[in-house]
Amino acid sequence: MKPSTTLLFAAFLGGTAIVLGALGAHALKPILDPGQIESYLTAVRYQLFSAFFLLFLGITRSFWPELRLGAVAMLALLGGMLFSFSIYILLILKVNDISGTSIVGPITPIGGLLMISAWVLLFIELWKKGGIFDSTSHK
Fold first, then answer.
1. With a threshold of 0.70, does the pTM exceed it?
2. How many CB atoms are located within 10 Å of the residue 57 CB?
3. What pLDDT, in 10s, does the model give residues 97-108?
């Protein structure tokens, strides 16, 4: 994924997280029970985390194009979207008493694993480039 595409998705995830957070704070409080509100806010929070991570990756790749962070960005994007949007869908299904939670439910941890994988891959890429152990960066 190109840095500009990464930044575009960061803006999308960040903007929609703010809109969805406001929706949850105002319109959904009378509809959702406290446990559901907590789940909803977790989804919004992790969507924002994903947006900031993508923003960081896009900016980092703009300054250091030699870093191979395209796969990291893709994992972060897919993971954040699967994690957060599966929770939103689960809540919609539960509130409307629609079946399908057994199909959507397993998607949330898959999204979480993809987000963890993005951070691990970032660590590996930075380690391969010398990371904090590069003695030439302190001269």
1. yes
2. 26
3. 888 778 888 999
